[in-house]
Design goal:
Number of domains: 1
Oligomer: single chain
Number of helices: 5
Number of strands: 11
CATH topology: Rossmann fold
Strand content: 15-25%
Helix content: 25-40%
Radius of gyration: 17 Å
CATH architecture: 3-Layer(aba) Sandwich
Length: 261
């Protein structure tokens, strides 16, 4: 089976795939994070990949991003819907909100982030990294579902697995970044190098290190992230179920592929 669109996410989202079959890939960059499930959402062929492995055993700095993207490209994926938990760096991006990213800032290190490591060289355009066509569909469907969402947002990506210090979080907030996460990079750049449209859906789980001036808002803990993320999963499943058929029913108006393969 081939699939034009892939959903990348975690626990709970793989249950969206109906009539599923499994594909255990092994690429030239090694095995992807998990077996890829091929099935249907809204009658459309879709692939699902668990970024951190089926049992969430792969930390963010060890996710095999390059193997994941190569494996998806091998089954024909041209569009990616990627969900990720994010911390908020501003008061109006509240836990429980959904953010449709339009920009990222990379603060990671040591991650393999290109297919073009020589002798073939390519300089990938990345001024507008996220697919505007897919984001527009997500915004329309989020509005129809009466969700709490933000049409745009800049996510700063840190290495993990540790969370930020107060000084780091304050620095990122003062730069004007909206959210913080550990996984969007280099997933997006590798997808773009393979000619894929990529949409990032951020699920706000916490205020990164609390809120200055409000001692009732505590710094993030992993237990709290899991708790809020679990509550958000059902909402995001409704969004993806509604958006996937709309994304695939006609060509999107975007410039992603023009600046990729």
């Amino acid at each position: 089976m081939k699939a034009e669109l892939a959903v990348i996410g975690g626990t709970g989202l793989h249950e969206m795939i109906s009539e599923g079959e499994s594909w255990d890939s092994n690429t030239s960059y090694g095995k992807p994070s998990s077996i890829i499930t091929l099935g249907k959402i809204g009658g459309k062929n879709v692939a699902f990949l668990s970024r951190h492995g089926k049992s969430h055993t792969i930390p963010p700095h060890k996710v095999p991003y390059i193997a994941n993207m190569l494996a998806l490209s091998q089954i024909g994926v041209r569009k990616v819907l990627a969900t990720t938990a994010v911390g908020s760096l501003r008061a109006d991006y509240k836990p429980g909100d959904v953010v449709f990213f339009d920009q990222f800032v990379n603060m990671t290190s040591g991650r393999v982030d290109t297919f073009f490591d020589g002798p073939e060289v390519r300089h990938q355009e990345m001024a507008e990294p996220y697919c505007s066509g897919m984001r527009n569909v997500l915004i329309r469907e989020a509005k129809a579902l009466d969700m709490r969402y933000h049409e745009t947002g800049t996510v700063v990506v840190i290495n993990g697995p540790r969370f930020s210090t107060r000084a780091e979080s304050r620095f990122y907030a003062h730069q004007g970044f909206d959210t913080i996460s550990m996984t969007p990079y280099p997933e997006i750049t590798l997808a773009r190098e393979k000619g894929m449209c990529y949409a990032g859906i951020g699920l706000v789980t916490d205020y990164d290190v609390g809120m200055e001036g409000d001692t009732n808002v505590k710094p993030v803990t992993f237990a709290e992230v899991q708790k809020i993320f679990g509550k958000n999963v059902e909402v995001v499943k409704k969004l993806i179920n509604a958006a996937v058929p709309k994304i695939l029913e006609r060509p999107l108006q975007c410039s992603c592929t023009a600046s990729s393969e």
